[in-house]
Amino acid sequence: MEQLVFHNSSYKIWRSDIESLKELSSFVVVENVKHHNGQENAEQINTEIDAIYQEELTYAKNSIIYIVKDNSQKIIGSIRVFKWNRKDELPIQKIFGINPLQVVHHENKYSYWHIGRFAIDSFAGIPTMQLFKQLMVLAIQHIIKDTFSYMIAETDIKLLRIVNALGIKTTRLGISKVYLNSETIPICSSKKGLTDFYHRHDHLCGAS
Predict the structure, then answer these.
(1) What's the pLDDT score for residue 37?
(2) Assuming Cys at both sites, which of 3, 24, 73, 78 could form a disulfide with 15, CB separation 3.0 to 4.6 Å?
(3) How many CB atoms lie within 10 A of CB 176?
(4) Residue 58 and residue 97 in contact, taking contact as beta carbons nearer than 8 Å
(5) From CA 53, how far away is CA 94, in angstroms rounded?
(6) pLDDT (tens digit, 9 = 90+) per residue, 124-167?
(7) Is a pLDDT exceeding 70 seen at residue 79?
(8) In contact, 77 and 70? CB cutoff 8 Å
């Protein structure tokens, strides 16, 4: 079931659920291929979509998914966040072999929120920077509301430059690897490192 969280004359942002996972997985893979000049054939793309879909099913119970749709109901943006239960294997563990409990903090008081499946259709005619800020605000609001919390993510190197330029303070956790057609870096950010960005931009989507 979808819940409307923001709208204007050009698009709407919905908080979605498990029913959107297949559509989300397809959108993320296709956008990554488009943005990074991937050469995959249809079979490879379908394999990647299924792999992401199966992975997202693992986290679905705790996931909060935001999807942006234009006036024709086409997806033009997405992001997903979930609070780690310290049991399921995180993408950062699967891809990089990095356990946040070993490289960040192991104390039980700390929570880890994974942000992923961020993608924007840059050909949709919508200002991509505005969408980026809105989706990030919606995702990190859950981290901001948590007392002792960290963001964990794997981000494209170009996107990381934008993230840092916008004032989100990140720490690199390991060497980069190619993932979904792009050089990807494992990062984390403390609640403190997210706060300035959040309070500068939370008005964009009415986050509280």
Answers:
(1) 63
(2) 3
(3) 17
(4) no
(5) 15
(6) 899 999 999 999 999 999 999 999 999 999 999 989 999 999 99
(7) yes
(8) no
Kindly give, in sequence order, each residue whose CB lies less than 8 Å from that of residue 173, ignoring residues fewer than 6 positions away.
Answer: 92, 96, 98, 103, 104, 186, 187, 188
Q: Which two tokens stand for residue 98?
A: 């990095």
CA atoms within 13 A of residue 196's CA, in its CB half-sphere: 11
Q: How confident is the prediction for the chain on average, in pLDDT?
A: 92
For residue 77, give both structure tokens: 């943006």
CB neighbour class for 179 (10 Å; exposed up to 12, middle 13-18, buried from 19) = middle
∠ at Cα 59 (56, 61), nearest 5°? 120
Residue 92: CA count within 13 A, CB half-sphere: 27
Tokens coding 114: 């994974």
DSSP state of 98: -
